[in-house]
Amino acid sequence: MAAGGWTFLTNHAHVLLVVRRDPHARLQDISAAVGITERAVQLILGDLESAGYVRRTRVGRRNEYLVLGGPLRHPLDQGQAVEDVLDALDDSPG
């Protein structure tokens, strides 16, 4: 974590970035990447799924996550889309 104990992006944003980069990521993998517990990841994915930002599909014994996007929720962010933020932050090739 950054000095001072805070970061600019929320854990929700970090989880979205991880599953966008790796739709087959396990809770354990997401947890390690974001630096939060598996239970916190589970709750965040539930939030994101309930809000329509992520779709979870069962594939065998694992889950696959699809980031659906949509508008940002805060009034200051009106007119901005989740996809735009993720595109700006995503440094993965492709």
TrEMBL record:
Pfam families: HTH_24
Source organism superkingdom: Bacteria
InterPro entries in UniProt: WH-like_DNA-bd_sf, WH_DNA-bd_sf
Name of this chain's protein: MarR family transcriptional regulator
Protein source organism: Actinotalea soli
